[in-house]
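My main concern about presentation is that the manuscript never shows what a single data entry looks like. For the editor and my fellow referees, an illustration may be useful. For illustration, here is how one protein appears when written out as sequence plus structure tokens:

***
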Amino acid sequence: SASPCARRIKRLEQEGVISGYRAIVSRDTVGIAMTVFVEVSLNNHQASSIDEFEHAVVEMDEVISCHVVSGAYDYLL
């Protein structure tokens, strides 16, 4: 039978408390030499343009995170 800990983990997954797991890739092992931050300004702030940009970023394997920011830029990748 499942251990009490395994049952709790399963319950937390089913309730959405645990939303997933991730792998942390060793940058040195795969030869990634640097981290780059990119500031992005959109020319058009209509909802359709924002959605198009965000969907495009999701498809880019190189982008690790995308944040909406305030100030001179719209996004920080």
About this structure: Helices lie at 4-14, 27-30, 47-58.
